[in-house]
Amino acid sequence: MPYIVGISSGxxxxxxxxxxxxxAIQYAGIARKVSGFPIMQGVTFAQIxxxxxAEFMEPGLVESMKRVREQLxxxxxxxxxxxxxxxxxPYLDExxxxxxxxxxxxxxxxxxxxxxxxxxxxxxxxxxxxxxxxLGKDLQPTRLVDIWGRPMRDWLKSDEEYVKxxxxxxxxxxxKYIEQLGLPxxxxxxxxxxxxxxxxxxxxxxxxxxxxxxxxxEKITEEAIREGLVEYVSSNDQEYGTERxxxxxxxxxxxxxxDPLWKKIIDITIKYFAKLDNKEPREWLINRGINPDExxxxxxxxxxxxxxxVPAVSARYIWGHFFPEKAPGGGSRYENxxxxxxxxxxxxxxxxxxxxxxxxxxxWTRMPNPLQMYYLVKEVNQEFPYMGLAIDLEHMIAGNxxxxxxxxxxxxxxxxxxxxxxxxxxxxxxxxxxxxPIGSEQMWYLYYIYYKLRKKGFGKDGxxxxxxxxxxxxxxxxxxxxxxxxxxxxxxxxxxxxxDIKKHPEKYKQFYGVDxxxxxxxxxxxxxIREYSDEPLKGLLQVPxxxxxxxxxxxxxxxxxxxxxxxxxx
Length: 570
Prior knowledge:
Layout: E1 3-8, H1 12-18, H2 21-24, H3 30-35, E2 45-49, H4 61-70, E3 75-79, H5 97-116, E4 122-125, E5 139-141, H6 152-156, H7 161-180, H8 184-206, H9 214-232, E6 238-240, H10 242-256, H11 260-276, H12 281-287, H13 300-304, H14 310-322, H15 339-346, E7 350-353, H16 370-383, E8 387-392, H17 393-398, H18 403-409, E9 418-423, H19 441-455, E10 466-470, H20 478-494, H21 498-503, H22 522-531, H23 549-557, H24 561-567
Parallel strand pairs: 1-2, 1-10, 2-3, 3-4, 4-7, 7-8, 8-9, 9-10
Antiparallel strand pairs: 5-6
Helix pairs in contact: 5-15, 7-8, 7-10, 8-9, 10-14, 11-12, 11-14, 11-16, 14-16, 19-20, 23-24
């Protein structure tokens, strides 16, 4: 069966705040995260929530995980580090030199650690780096890199065809567009550097000749601007939002070279927002004051609607981490830390998940939409077929993204690329990770979305595994959620129309959990009603109350009353 039902392990940093320390100990380390809580929940797969790469240093980890696989029959994958787990984690779409390096090295070590203990996959949020919208508020180093992590100064000075064209364009237009596009600090800084360069070049020229012709003056000016831009992207100074300049430059380069990610991601993003507003794409652009025939970064209205083009640049930076050997002329320091080699050797998919965002910047993460991620995954897989998508409806809805429209716009083969689904009550507030009530409207909605993905190939490739993972928020009602997912899987495999389920509930009693033996069965509900039928009299009777029963009394005497209440119906 291609569908594998699993559960997330839980996070020690959160558990220790909400539980007795003895209870939280089951989350302290990778081996405990798998063999502790998940093994008791009726699943054979656990998604390990990695809180630190230091977890791979756990003593005896390789032997412990071998026992987990061979003796307990469990498999597992990794949810990589995330800002939502706490800490400062770099992402693969950052263009500051130190951040790019830290992100690459850290993901490489995570891949090594996961491969070393035979993990099924490694999953990473596509982008939770600082929103492009907020970059102008923060000081950043101006030491920038290209998409392969090489110093941007070297890239801008290179003889690559489109870089030379880019540099010519920058020299001619930098002052005009930098001011127009809301980067006045950059304009002032580069102008200062330019003035210094200009005076030096002019002084050096006058050392050998009495006067400077107008033609020579023009050349000096041009050279000063070139040198000024190169110095700007390689200094140790702090400026506000320097990544905006990196993204602006890479965006123009992608546009000039006809980069497929540039066109495809912009097109699908426009289609998404147009459909959200019930308009045609051209009409939607015109209503926003954007000329549909001038989707270029110097078009200020297009540039200022960052949601349209920033995801394309984000995708190309992520792509660069996977193909350091493709840097023109070589020179990428990351060829010796090739993600592909580890992934291919272990056939361990690398999964990009819908990111978490925050209140006030819901859809403003750099690459928030699975439609955008699809085209990155598709391009990577043309040469390296080991990348997949993870869909998380909670992340999408809370990120102000409409899952219906996303799934409708996904190309017909997209479902095959969806390798992981993080499932749970589809809440607009995150991180909620609420349980799934069996037979509820929420369960039906989950099935409805997954059914549409199934129609586009999700779970249909018999040579691949597809995981549905319940990301839990706490121990309550976990079993019910697992049972709900198993019901969803059973109906997915039969491809039962979701609207038929809703229209004829009497035909689909299993979906609503009323078959004998299920957690929400009529028999179970009747047993609970009988047990609590005298509840209104509790505390009023003179005879001793027998609340816990024979087995429960032993649990109470041992101080395990709460555990008994939670487990007695499972």
